[in-house]
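Reviewers of the previous submission asked for a worked example of the structure-prediction workflow described in the proposal, so we include one complete record here. The input consisted solely of the amino acid sequence. No template or homolog information was supplied to the procedure at any stage.
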Amino acid sequence: MLKYRSWLIGFGLGIMIGASMLQLILFAQDTENKVKQVPMTQEQLNEEAKSAGLKLLTEEQLNTQVEEAVAAALKEAKIKSDEISLEQNKDLESASPSESTPSEQPSINASPDPKSVTLYVSYGMSLTEVAEELKSLGIIDDTEDFIVKAKDIAKKMKVGNAVFTGKPTYKQIMNELTRKK
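From that input alone, the workflow returned the following structure tokens.
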């Protein structure tokens, strides 16, 4: 028997590998049969959605809900900006009411919606390229100064849209550039 030992080991391994391959083939055929099922009807789809706790919407219903959500968000943003404006006015009035007359006080509500600017940071964009884009958008005045201050975040910038409102500080700009998008 020792004489045929390697032959018997090879024969046994061949049988085991063949049986494994047969099982894989049968599993693949079974999976293929399950995938080739008849498509669901609308009623079946609705029942499946209900059982999963979901609600199916038509395109019109979806558009209506999106419009309502956008309107609600805009209304909320306007209310918040009005509240901030009132707080700023109160702060200015309480800071130095005797030193300045109402006509000399700067108008906080000169532009109710501060200008919002979006910069798309693409993969592989260098800090110099970002600084030049920021300067062209009017967010920063000096590219060299920004590059010196933001050198630490050069490798940490995230790909995506960076949104800047008004005239942000360098710290705010760096936070927005490194924020996960």
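The beta strands are 116-121, 160-165. We consider this example representative of the routine output the project will generate in years two and three.
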